[in-house]
Amino acid sequence: MEGRYVNIVIPGRREYLTLCEVEVTGQALGNTALTGDSYHLTRGNVIQSSLYGNDVPERAIDGNRASNYGQGSCSVTNNDLKPWWRLDLLKTYQINTVTITNRGDCCPERINGAEIRIGNSLNDNGNDNPRCAVISSIKAGTSQTFACNRMEGRYVNIVIPGRREYLTLCEVEVTGQALECK
Question: Which residue numbers delimit the Fucolectin tachylectin-4 pentraxin-1 domain (predicted)?
């Protein structure tokens, strides 16, 4: 089916509609860079500086904003010097926003000072790419969106430079457009 909107309704009666998660897949028609439409770009390969137990980097792009560690939806590194997490979008996009959900049950200050970096280089594991934003703080269990103003890149990195820390990401959501073919 083709369309711009997806509606979910209970027709013909007054009722509560409870949706815990909705995922829509499909293909864009035409050139997305010309339409200006923004798409969630959380499909791709993820890697991080280390693994804390079984807290794999894929948990940060599972579509679940659950922020309590025990719910199993957060990626966590070891207590690394300059810990990092990287999403490989598999091709270059113009990135509009990056939204990060912080851990809610403990230690929200760990994210303070983290940087969002976007680009096409893998120098220093992608941490040398241009900076979109510095995260001063994100309240426990909440999500914050950072505008990246159409920065171009294949890689989206989150890195805590200059100190030893655990990097915990409970969800990372990226929006942007595919680059126009030349």
Answer: 42-182
- Strand stretches in 43-179, DSSP E: 45-48, 75-76, 80-81, 84-101, 115-119, 131-134, 143-159, 164-165, 168-169, 171-178
- Which residue from 155, 168, 181 is spatially nearest to 41, judged by alpha carbons? 155
142 is written with which tokens?
A: 């909440």
Give the Cα separation of 117 and 65 in Å (integer): 21
Does this model's pTM top 0.90? My answer is: no
Half-sphere exposure of 7 (CA within 13 A, CB side): 3
- The amino acid sitting at 181 is C
Q: What is the pLDDT of residue 93?
A: 95
Rounded-to-integer distance, Cα 120 and Cα 62, Å: 24
